[in-house]
Amino acid sequence: MKRFTLIISFVCILFTLLGCQSENKEMVVLDQITKISVSNSDGFGGLNENYIFSSQENKLTSSFEEIIERTTLVNKELSQVTPDYDILVEYENQDTQGLHLILGSSDQESYLTYIGYEDKVYRISQNDIERIRGFLNI
User: What pLDDT score does 52 carry?
Assistant: First the structure.
């Protein structure tokens, strides 16, 4: 009986530890996106508020929401790279999120990070990068 209790306790502790290790594999959308604003980035850690593009168009905001939801967490460090764009995402519930966009050339990968959490890097699919380039006309 003592052995059985010990095994059950061990299994419970193991599941608790494994649960704490879980991490979102894609970016989290806090609510319905109502507006996105894009600026040239000044580097990691801050948000440039001199926007070069801003839109509240539902088609564009819902498309960007889909792009965010399809990103995948990768084990990559971006310390040798400077973000190309900063993106301010505004939600229906009045929350906001700042993102850095590292936009690779057509044959390179592109990434998003949360501003202030640059250690978590999310890869954007090539199709979605082309959609972003279309939004920004680049």
Answer: 93
